[in-house]
Write a structure and sequence with these properties.
By secondary structure, the protein is α/β, with parallel strands linked by helices. Helix content is 38%, strand content 24%. The model has no long low-confidence stretch (mean pLDDT 89).
């Protein structure tokens, strides 16, 4: 997304349903430009179009894995590199489901002595090529759309471990400090990992600020660090400061 599209999404989320004419006026561009942006963002599920206007995307269902994989891909790489730089060798990690956590996995392939548990089959495949990394994958129900392993069996599996750090992605971070996702079964696995971890790191690109989803995963007050690609918007900075969460903004390199 370009900065104008990010601002467009922010307006739709903060103001509710908004007309194309109003968006054009606030963004100081033509209605035709707004219409093109809206069409593109609607295809990724971030906006919902209606006659003459738009509203923020629905909170009941996530966009497809393939769409998420390409969305803000550069930001996810920068976040992943920032996280990997903070991960020492010879530690135990839980990586939860997601395209950003998958980017983290790519950056961890040259680490040594890692013991990693995941419920994401793509992450397990990425990390299993390193003979110095011990990979455990949860058992349970395999979700067809993204090969995530969810359900009670996965929860029970995670509870057998004690992690130095759990690294998790979220679908959205709301202004009240709620961090949210879509699938209740996936969230239960993440909650079990959080309960068995010494520290909790969240990886989320800037598009997640102000975005809603159905199920609460955790709250800002219960995490230790947030890795993102841009400074949190107004209001969120105070939220993180009040809860003493470390916010690391990944650089451009």
């Amino acid at each position: 997304m370009n900065p104008r599209q990010e601002q467009l999404i922010h307006l739709a989320r903060s103001q509710g349903p908004v007309s194309l004419d109003e968006l054009a006026e606030k963004l100081k561009v033509s209605v035709q430009t707004v219409r093109r942006d809206v069409q593109q963002l609607a295809q990724t599920g971030q906006l919902v179009r209606f006659h003459g206007g738009v509203r923020a995307g629905a909170t009941a269902e996530n966009i497809t894995y393939q769409q998420r994989e390409t969305l803000n891909a550069d930001a996810k790489v920068r976040i992943a590199r920032a996280v990997a730089a903070r991960i020492p060798n010879d530690c135990c990690l839980m990586l939860t489901v997601g395209t950003t956590t998958c980017a983290v996995a790519r950056e961890l392939r040259n680490h040594r002595g890692l013991r990693i548990v995941t419920n994401d089959m793509a992450i397990a495949q990425l990390l299993s090529v390193n003979r110095d990394t011990e990979v455990h994958i949860c058992g349970g129900f395999v979700r067809a759309r993204d090969h995530a392993v969810v359900g009670e069996a996965a929860v029970d599996f995670v509870k057998q471990f004690r992690f130095d750090t759990v690294i998790l992605g979220v679908a959205g971070i709301e202004p009240d400090g709620s961090m949210r996702d879509y699938d209740y079964r996936e969230v239960k696995v993440t909650e079990a990992a959080i309960a068995h971890s010494r520290q909790v790191w969240v990886v989320a690109d800037a598009s997640k600020f102000g975005r809603g989803a159905m199920v609460e995963v955790t709250r800002v007050s219960d995490i230790d660090a947030l890795f993102t690609d841009a400074a949190p918007p107004a209001g969120f900075d105070k939220l993180f400061a009040a809860t003493a969460v470390t916010v690391e903004v990944a650089g451009t390199h």
